[in-house]
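[job 0412] stage=complex_fold ligand=flavin-adenine dinucleotide status=START
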Amino acid sequence: MSRDSQIKVFLQNQKKCVYQENQYLSQHTWYRIGGPADFLVFPSNKECLRVIVRFCNEEKIPYFILGLGANVLVSDSGFRGIVLKLTDGFREIRSKGEIIDTEAGVNLQDLILYCEKWSLSGLEYLSGIPGTIGGALIMNAGTDQAVIGDVITEVSGITAQGDDFSIGGDEIGFAYRSAPLLQDKIILSCRLKMHRESARKLREVRLQQMEYRQQKQPVEYPSCGSVFMRPPGDYAGRLIERAGLKGLRRGDAMVSEKHAGFIINLGKASAADVRFLIDEIQRIVQAEYGILLRPEVRFLGFDR
Ligand SMILES: Cc1cc2nc3c(=O)[nH]c(=O)nc-3n(C[C@H](O)[C@H](O)[C@H](O)COP(=O)(O)OP(=O)(O)OC[C@H]3O[C@@H](n4cnc5c(N)ncnc54)[C@H](O)[C@@H]3O)c2cc1C
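[job 0412] stage=complex_fold status=DONE, emitting structure tokens
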């Protein structure tokens, strides 16, 4: 039996999980770029997910957890393995006083609106950042004012071996766009400790953040946000702009004129186009300023 047939038989036997074959990931990434995944699976609960993860381990089948795909560049040839998306079944939010328990498939913006409704402060500066709670935790998403790690007291899920884990927020080692102890784990839920603030004030901050993004970022085009991490003491966008790279174009991928830290998809950009620009930017900025820009975007389905 071929490997794909073996996976198919296995998935057909899982009653609680929907799957699609050869599904183009361009339909599941913010960039609107990406070739097909052999299998795109939507597990409906934790046990179903655990069984799949254990199967992947035993059979040495690569798998990848995809959130909203707002920080992922998928190659044009796609991904040979199983992409897991946590959607229905992983979208509950509960709260008691200033404590919120949320599942990983919840949209970050929905959680921000929930907080506003219940006058809970801590995430409002993340307004406008696309993603799920799972993706936000892995990336420690945020702004200069606040990151999600600031309000996390506990994260739970399953390990790469399919065992349960639960880690205190203080142990995770949240740092700039990283959450070291969460890497290679599958996040299913987390607990947040918020503080009280008036809904009016929270709304004001949310609208200010959205307005700022509209003005400063090319939100009208598909992208992955800032492609590169901030180098120590500087901004990637500033270095790229100073190197004269705004407007640099390959196919339909272009360094944004509005914000040089973004590479946008003008319509039909391929992953190869974006990757070419990433390599060019790194090469030129290093030659000009001696700084190697490190990608913030995660790559899927590439050889390197
Ligand atoms: C227009 C735009 C603006 C942006 N602005 C910002 C910003 O201001 N600040 C900022 O920090 N980011 C920003 N980003 C980047 C992006 O929004 C964040 O990184 C976001 O947290 C990604 O969430 P996601 O669900 O889309 O994750 P994905 O992009 O789908 O995945 C990102 C990583 O998280 C992993 N992952 C996702 N879910 C889980 C899970 N449940 N368990 C384990 N691993 C998981 C994936 O495997 C992958 O490695 C921006 C992006 C865009 C498009």
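The mean pLDDT is 97.
[job 0412] exit 0
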